[in-house]
Amino acid sequence: IDFHAAWCGPCHAIAPVFEKLAAQYRGVTFAKVDVDKAQEIARAYKVTAMPTFAFVKGERKVHEVRGANAQA
């Protein structure tokens, strides 16, 4: 899950990498959440920085990456 905001510069910078990965791994579900439009979801995942990428298996968050570091 890509947690982002329209006003977040690093979010815009990393977006093409997220889209490329989504195209490359078609068997994996990729989702984007605008934290300003879906504040309850952002709170549920305890998002405190953007961008934040949450990796979810089943109904459980198994990993999280904060920031726009494409190498992470």
Structure description:
It is built from 2 helices and 4 strands, in the order E-H-E-H-E-E. It has 72 residues and is of the alpha+beta class. The protein has a single domain, classed as Glutaredoxin. Strands 2-1-3-4 form a 4-stranded mixed beta sheet. The longest helix has 16 residues, at 9-24. The chain is globular, with a radius of gyration of 12 Å. The model has no long low-confidence stretch (mean pLDDT 95).
Short description:
Residues 1-72 form the Thioredoxin domain. The protein has helices at 9-24, 39-44, and strands at residues 2-4, 32-34, 52-57, 60-66.
Structural class: alpha+beta
What's the pLDDT, averaged over the residues? 95
Helix proportion range: 25-40%
By CATH, the superfamily comes out as Glutaredoxin
Number of helices: 2
Approximate shape: globular
CATH class membership: Alpha Beta
Largest sheet: 4 strands, mixed
Strand order of the largest sheet: 2-1-3-4
SSE topology string? EHEHEE
Tally of strands: 4
**What proportion strand?**
25-35%
The rounded distance between the terminal residues' Cα atoms is: 15 Å
> Radius of gyration over alpha carbons?
12 Å
Low-confidence segments, given as residue ranges, are none
The number of domains: 1
Name of the CATH architecture: 3-Layer(aba) Sandwich
Within the CATH hierarchy, at the fold level, what is the topology? Glutaredoxin
Active site: 8, 11
GO molecular function: protein-disulfide reductase activity
Pfam family, one: Thioredoxin
Organism: Rhodotorula diobovata
